[in-house]
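Hi both,

Apologies for the delay on this - the queue was longer than expected. I finally got the zinc ion-bound model through. Below you'll find the protein sequence and the ligand SMILES exactly as submitted, and right after that the C-alpha cells for the full complex including the ligand.
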Amino acid sequence: MIVACVLLQHYWSGGRVVHQKKPLPPSPRSRIALGLTSAAARGVFELQQCQECSKFQYPPAEMCRHCLGEQLIWCRADGAGKLLSETALHHSQNQFYADRTPWRIGLIQLNIGPTVVAHLAHDAELSPCPVIVDLRLDRSGRGVLVATSQQDTLPMPGNKQHSEMGCDPESRSILVTDGQSDVGQAIVRALAQSGAKNIWVGGGNSASKDTNFMALEKLPGVEIIGLDLTNPNNMQEQAKMLGDRVDIVINTVQACSVANTSSLTETQQASTEIELNYLGLLHLAQEFGPKIKHRSGQGHSVAWVNLLSIFALTNHPSQGTYSASQAAAFSLSQYLRSDFQAYAVKVLNVFFGPIDDIANELIPPPKLAPDRLAKDLVAGLARGVEDVYSGEFAQEIYSRYREDPKILEKELSHE
Ligand SMILES: [Zn+2]
C-alpha cells in the first residue's frame, strides 16, 4: 500500500520534475477553528452561536464565553460591523506576508456582538467606518476573516491582496475537457463572457458535430481540440502542447448510464462510467497536474474544477452505478486538493442535481439550467471557494446530507 502511494505521488509529480512550492500563509488550525474554514469553503459567513443564550462568539471555542453553555452551533451570521482601528504589517517572519507588505489588518466590532481582527481591503476607508466582514479561503486553504467597506463586495478583482484568494477567469487560459454537452457549452460561453484569454475546448475528436458545439469556436479565444480522457497517449500529447499555458482546468466529461439507451449490460455501463468519470479524471490529473503546479510556482493563480453529481455524496438507487462512479471521482478530488494545496492550486467541486436537458426531459422539476450552473462555477472560481452546490436540488440534498446521512440514505432508497 505504501509502495502504491509513493508510486502514485511519483506519477503525480510527473516523475520528472520537482516543482517549487510557493510561500504560503501559516496553516495550522485547531479542530474547532476549522469551522471557519468549512464555512469559507462553502462561501458563507458563519460563526458559533450558543444555543442556550443565543449569543454569537469569536474566536471559536469549546464553550460559550457568556454562559459556559456547551451547545455551540455554526450558524449563518451578519458580517456588518464598525472598523474601530487599523494598522499595517511592514515586516513579517512569514515569507508569504513579507512578500506582500504592507498588509492591512483591522479591529472590527460586529453588530451581532463579537470583536474580530480581520484582513482589511486596501480600499476600505479609514476608521471609524461601517464595514462588512466575510470569510474567505487564503492561499493555504484556511478560512480567514476579510473586511471591506460596505460599498464593495468580495471578491474584489482590482484588489491584489484579496483577488489572489480566488481565481477569476478574466484574462486566464482555460481548458474545458468537453464542450459537447449543454453544460460544457454553457460553461464555455460563461468563461468567454467573463473575459477569459484562451479557452481550449475538448470534443473535437467526436464524430457528432452538434451545431451549438461548432458555434463555440466563433467565441473570442475559443479553440476546439481533440481530447480523450480514456487515452493516456492523447492526454500526454495535449498536456505537452497546452499544459505550460493552462491556468484553470475544468473537467466537464461525464458518462451516465441513465442517459445511455444502448444495450450494454449493467457491468459494461458501470465500466464506462468508471473509465470516464473516475479514471478519466485520474489521467487528466496525472498529465495536467504537474503542469499547473509548475505554472502556479511561476506566480500565476491556478485552479482545478470538477463537476460532480450531488449523488457523489450519497447513492441514488435509480442511478446506482453512476452514483458510485461519482463517489470515486469525489474522493479523488479530495486527494487532488490535498496534493495541490502546497502549490496553492485551488480545487473547486461544483455539485449539481438533474440538469434541464434532453436526457432529463422526463424527470420532474426542479432541474438545473446549464447557464445557472455555469454562472455559479464562474462565481465560485472568482471567490475561491471549494464547494459549490448549484441549484435548488443540489442544495436541498446537501442540506439533508449534513443533517443526517443515514436518514437521507433511507429516504432516497424509497423514492
Ligand atoms: Zn451562551
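Main takeaway for now: Residues 173-413 form a domain with the Rossmann fold fold (CATH 3.40.50.720).

I'll put the files on the shared drive as well.

H.
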